[in-house]
Amino acid sequence: MHLKELKKKTPAELVEMAEEFEVEGASTMRRQDLMFAILKEVAEDGEEILGIGTIEVLQDGFGFLRSPEANYLAGPDDIYVSPNQIRKWGLRTGDTVEGEIRAPKDGERYFALTKLTSVNFDDPDAVRHRTNFDNLTPLYPDEKLVLDTVDPTVKDKSARVIDIIAPQGKGQRALIVAPPRTGKTVLLQNIAKAITDNHPEVFLIVLLVDERP
User: Fold this and answer.
1) Which residues face 63 on adjacent strands?
2) Can you tell me the distance from the alpha carbon of 151 to that of 153, in angstroms, rounded to the nearest whole number?
3) What does residue 17 show for φ and ψ, rounded to 5 degrees?
4) Which neighbouring-strand residues pair with 21?
5) Rounded Cα–Cα distance for residues 14 and 19 (Å)
6) Cα dihedral 156, 160, 161, 162 sign
7) What is the DSSP string of 155-185?
8) pLDDT value for 213
């Protein structure tokens, strides 16, 4: 059973499921207590329980798997990750962690990760000895993106001007700064079309924030 499957269920569905497991007083329990009780019964039956989340490592050394459904904010559904596991697997804040979990014991408030099965959807051993980002070797663009076109029907030569004044390369970041109503969106459109026409091997993603489609 996967924890996210329980999180998707309505309170009525959780009560029905708890009654199937013969949990006493299921109809009077809070949602969180219902989930705890169901997972406890599932674990006693020997069934594997899985959980997934984005880890936040706290200053005390332990961490919690936060849920995207809760906007990665702290909540009662978070999964506790011990300091030993964080050190052993080199976990860092922002990693997506999946593994076997258990229901809280008496006196505990959170689910707990017992066995890690994947980190960032990959084998934990593959990311165990990652180099710190600040220690990585920077790689600079070494392949030019040609934006000019030989199409005689294209009258706008802005892409050609970019090639001459501010040539772009694969892996490069660029920022267009200009006053309103000066054609920034049209320029972006021309750049996108030029990349599509001249470099079909490039996977192009266009995100318009607060713009009319």
Assistant:
1) 57, 81
2) 5
3) -65, -40
4) none
5) 9
6) positive
7) ---HHHHHHHHS-EETT--------TTSSHH
8) 62
Q: If you search the block for the tokens 């109809």, which residue do you land on?
A: 27
Average model confidence (pLDDT) across the chain: 88
- Under DSSP, is residue 15 helix (H, G, I), strand (E, B) or coil? helix
Q: Quickly state the pLDDT bin for 119 (edges 50, 70, 90).
A: very high
What domains are there in the chain, each with its CATH number? 3-126 (2.40.50.140), 144-198 (no CATH)
Amino acid occupying residue 97: V
Least confident of 124-138, 164-178, 187-201: 124-138
The DSSP string of 24-80 is TTGGGS-HHHHHHHHHHHHHHTT---EEEEEEEE-TTS-EEEE-GGGTT---TT-EE
List residues bridging with 1 in a β-sheet: none
Name the residue with tokens 């318009």. Answer: 208
Angle between helices 184-198 and 158-165 (to 10 degrees): 80
Rounded to 5 degrees, what are φ and ψ at 117? -115, -25
